[in-house]
Every structure is written in structure tokens, then in C-alpha cells.
Write a structure and sequence with these properties.
single chain, alpha/beta, 15% strand, globular
Length: 344
């Protein structure tokens, strides 16, 4: 049975105020945490939707830092009793051996942490001491039997450090490493030169990372090609080939926005993607109806993509529409780091 993913933010409370956090990107909002009664109702709504779609729900429980929610453990007990698989996406600061053992016993398959460069850069993004605490937590997570994933957010401020960070992640035996690009917000527009990456520079960056991935292909670390422009890189390198005999109107890979994913915010808003303003409804509505409604349908109109619709990789790539939206406020605009030459 195929999965349907729910990135569920249960609280905005967090020990950090990361410079690229989208929760605080438009100022300093009031911190919200989802009440217990609503969490119970949301889980029931998720199960109803998944049953009607014949999909297995998979939860990515996050925040803020979800462990700071006062009913965090109650929620995990409830999720475990319903036999729903889940991952935690949070901070390293409260991860003791006892906490990780308990997480594992309640069915947590994976704990995702963030590293956004080497020590000085990462701590500048997040807070002093965060880098070393994160590296220490990798071993604590893995000792419990959970997988540990490391995620990086890439911009021009840290792009040159990511290849060296791969060395660090492999050395500490993280199970999974991936990165995605920073999505700019409205207040970033005046400072574009500080985070913008030129398209060919991004391709060169992907090539450096690919060489690292090949170097470590027999290591304990799996490299998740999360950024959809990997598909273009692999296609040009001859590593990915478009299979023959596929249907022309089917999406096979690339961005899952509108396909098999929902984001649920702590205040109960539903979004097609958490990386940009993609409101489609609230948790007071039936998730099944929202998913099949007109607001969500707008994110499935692939023929409207201004550049991708003319590309042979439309059904496999489409870049990152969230990044395009961050630059242009247009979901269908060309990915600003796509280097492929297409006449528009």
C-alpha cells in the first residue's frame, strides 16, 4: 500500500530561532500549540482520509520542537495504539538515552535533525552549541535503534561547506543525509545577493556532492536526492534515462505538492507544502474533500508550469516550485536555479 505523508506541526515552541525558519520569517508571531482535543480529531481525520484513498498514513511530527508540546508523549501513545508509522523532526537538545529508547518503543522509525554548515556557520544560523549537540545526538538516536537523518538547508551562505559537511555526517554514521534549497521570504528581497545561487553554480555544487556520494557509496550513510534538480543533473550525466512506453499524462517523480502530501500547522491550517504560502483549508474540514478540492487541484496543473511544461523531464522533475514562489510569488514560474536552456 502506498504512503500518504502528513507533516504535522503540533507546536511553534522551540529552543532556537533559526534565521531561515519560515515560522518566524515574517516577524515574531504568537507561538501556537495545538490543543489535545484537536490533535485527537486531526488523527481521526487523517485515518478517515487514508482509508478512503486506500493509502497508509505516514506522520512527520514536528514543530517548532514537538517534544516541547505538553501532550507530546500522549500523542505518540495514541499514534502507536493506532499502528501508524511516524518520524520526528526536531532539535537535539532533549535527546537522552531514556528519551530515545522511549521514542523507539512507541514506534518512531526515524529522528531528523538539521545541520546547516560546519560549526561556526551552523551555530550562527541556529544557536551556539547547536552543532556539537547535534553531532552527539546522532549516536544517541542510533543506539536506541532509530534511524537518524540529517537535513541541510542550502543557500549561498553555506553552499561551499556542504561537501565538507558530508564528510562529517559520514564520520558520525548518520543513516541518511539530504539537503534542500532555502525558500526566500518577502523580507529577503532586499538582500537577494546574500542567499541567491546562480544556476550553473548550483549544477557545479550538485556535481561536487555527487562525487562525495560516490566516494561514500559503501558507507553507513544513505544519500537522499531530495532536491528535484538532481533529476536534471542525473539525466544530463546519463545516469537517469526516461523509460520507454510511459503514459504521457502521468507524473512519476519530482515535487509531491498536490500528490501525496499535506502539511498541518499548529493552528490547524492545511497547506499543500510547508515551504511557501499554500493554504488549502483547515483541519475542521474533511481532509479527503480538501485534497480533492479546487484549491489543491491548482497545484496539480502541471501544464501551467512556464518552463517545465516545455521540458522532457516534466513528469520526473519540475524543480522546486516552492523556491520559484519564494522568488516570484508564482508557483508556476521557472525554478531560479534550473540551468537547462529552454526557449520560453
Amino acid at each position: 500500500m502506498d504512503y500518504f505523508a502528513f507533516q504535522w506541526h503540533i507546536t511553534d515552541e522551540c529552543d532556537q530561532r533559526c534565521k531561515h525558519c519560515y515560522i518566524f520569517s515574517e516577524g515574531h508571531p504568537q507561538l501556537v500549540q495545538m490543543p489535545w482535543e484537536r490533535m485527537v480529531a486531526v488523527l481521526a481525520n487523517i485515518e478517515r482520509m487514508a482509508a478512503r484513498m486506500h493509502r497508509q498514513p505516514y506522520l512527520y511530527i514536528t514543530g517548532g520542537d514537538p517534544i516541547l508540546h505538553p501532550r507530546f508523549w500522549d500523542l505518540l501513545e495514541l499514534v502507536h495504539s493506532h499502528n501508524i508509522p511516524f518520524t520526528i523532526m526536531g532539535n537535539p537538545f532533549h535527546l537522552t538515552d531514556e528519551v530515545c529508547t522511549r521514542l523507539k518503543s512507541l514506534g518512531c522509525r526515524k529522528y531528523q535533525l538539521s545541520l546547516d554548515g560546519l560549526r561556526q556557520t551552523h551555530d550562527r544560523f541556529r544557536k551556539p552549541g547547536s552543532y556539537d549537540c547535534t553531532l552527539q545526538a546522532i549516536g544517541t538516536i542510533r543506539k536506541s535503534g532509530m534511524h537518524c537523518a540529517i537535513m541541510s538547508t542550502v543557500s549561498s551562505t553555506n553552499i561551499d561547506e556542504i561537501p565538507a559537511l558530508i564528510d562529517v555526517v559520514v564520520e558520525h554514521k548518520a543513516d541518511i543525509f539530504a539537503f534542500g534549497r532555502y525558500c526566500p521570504t518577502s523580507e529577503d528581497k532586499a538582500h537577494m545577493e546574500t542567499w541567491h545561487i546562480e544556476p550553473l553554480s548550483y549544477r557545479q555544487f550538485l556535481d561536487r556532492c555527487w562525487q562525495k556520494y560516490k566516494q561514500y557509496q559503501n558507507s553507513d550513510t544513505t544519500f537522499n536526492l531530495k532536491d528535484h534538480l538532481w533529476m536534471l543533473y542525473l539525466y544530463e550525466e546519463g545516469i537517469f534515462k526516461i523509460p520507454e512506453g510511459l503514459a504521457d499524462d502521468t507524473i512519476y517523480d519530482g515535487c509531491n505538492c498536490g500528490n501525496c502530501h499535506f502539511t498541518i500547522s499548529a493552528e490547524g491550517r492545511l497547506m499543500a507544502c510547508r515551504r511557501f504560502d499554500s493554504y488549502v483549508g483547515t483541519v475542521n474540514e474533511e481532509l479527503y474533500d480538501v485534497f480533492h478540492g479546487s484549491r489543491m487541484e491548482a497545484f496539480r496543473q502541471h501544464e501551467r508550469f512556464e518552463k517545465c511544461a516545455k521540458c522532457e523531464l516534466l513528469r520526473f522533475c519540475r524543480g522546486c516550485p516552492a523556491v520559484a514562489f519564494g522568488y516570484t510569488k508564482n508557483f508556476y514560474a521557472p525554478d531560479p536555479q534550473c540551468w537547462k536552456d529552454i526557449n520560453l
